[in-house]
Amino acid sequence: MQVDWKRFSEVIEASNNIILTSHIRPDCDALGSCLGMAGLLESLGKKVRIVCGQEVPESLKFIDPDDRIKCIGKDIVAEEFADADLHIILDTSAWIQLGDMADVIRNSSYKKIIFDHHEGEDDIDAELFKNTTAEAVGRMIVDAAEYLKVEMTPAIAQPVLAALATDTGWFRFGSVNPGTFRAAAKLLEAGAQPAKLYGQLYERETVGRVRLRGTVLARIETELDGRLAHTYIKPDDYEKTGAHPTDTEDLINLALEIEGTVFAVIMVGQVSGGYKMSFRSRCDVAANEVAKAFGGGGHRAAAGAFIESDSFEEVQNQVLTQVREMLAAGIA
Ligand SMILES: [Mn+2]
């Protein structure tokens, strides 16, 4: 599905007071596209407000230095924008992703459009402007700037670069094409700064978290010709490294960077007692099948479980025995 840009321009031209909304659990494409679209529409003289169903997470606040993205029920109530004449929903086509904005949208009478790159949509009473081959809504914003003949400013280009870069895994996903780089070039010509963005996104670790990562990496053991990798965190590691117990997220993925490793396990001692296990699979043995053996669950590729014991040796023995057995049976 492609965007009918002529029709899009007509809809924009006919509107003056526009509300933008994106999905809850917002990412850079959601937030960056809202900010970019707001900038384009304001260049055309429109009044624009961004209202979402959830607050901008702390780690992404840098993307919105002027605090433009408002949270419904907290920063703004629906009555305050009842005078709007157009509502644009970006980067989602699903009710469930709209959070508390879903009811606002259901109960409003002004025109609605969806501006998105996801396939499929719920029964939202909205005109569709979708490009299901677009790498990111951020890419569609760059296209929109061209069709609306709006010159992008640095304040537009920077959040849109965040959208485009993150939704393409920094220009490496299968969706990337020559047009992705042309769009990126336009953003840089307009003043976007990739090095600044990268630093804001990925170079803000605490020393504790980096040290904890080192501890986890140093403890990796491999077995079964390297197909299985496992590591652990003990409850006193947080104090030793200065890390926070929530800093363990994603550490297991480091084990999957080893060539030939198709199954990874991390056993994470909890300050409140017991061990949380995370499993990652890149083979026929599903991570959730392994997790199920310990009363846990999840997905094929990623799953977790909990063991109440505080004896690391006991937990390790129990978990690895099970994983070895399932891998031996499941890998030819
Ligand atoms: Mn997206």
Automatic annotation (TrEMBL):
Residues 17-163 form the DDH domain. InterPro entries: DDH_dom (IPR001667), DHH_sf (IPR038763), DHHA1_dom (IPR003156), Oligoribo/pAp-PDE_c-di-AMP_PDE (IPR051319). GO terms for molecular function: hydrolase activity; nucleic acid binding. Signal peptide: none annotated. The keyword Disulfide bond does not apply. Its EC number is 3.1.-.-. It comes from the Bacteria. Keywords: Hydrolase. Residues 231-322 form the DHHA1 domain. This is NanoRNase/pAp phosphatase. It comes from Mariniblastus fucicola.
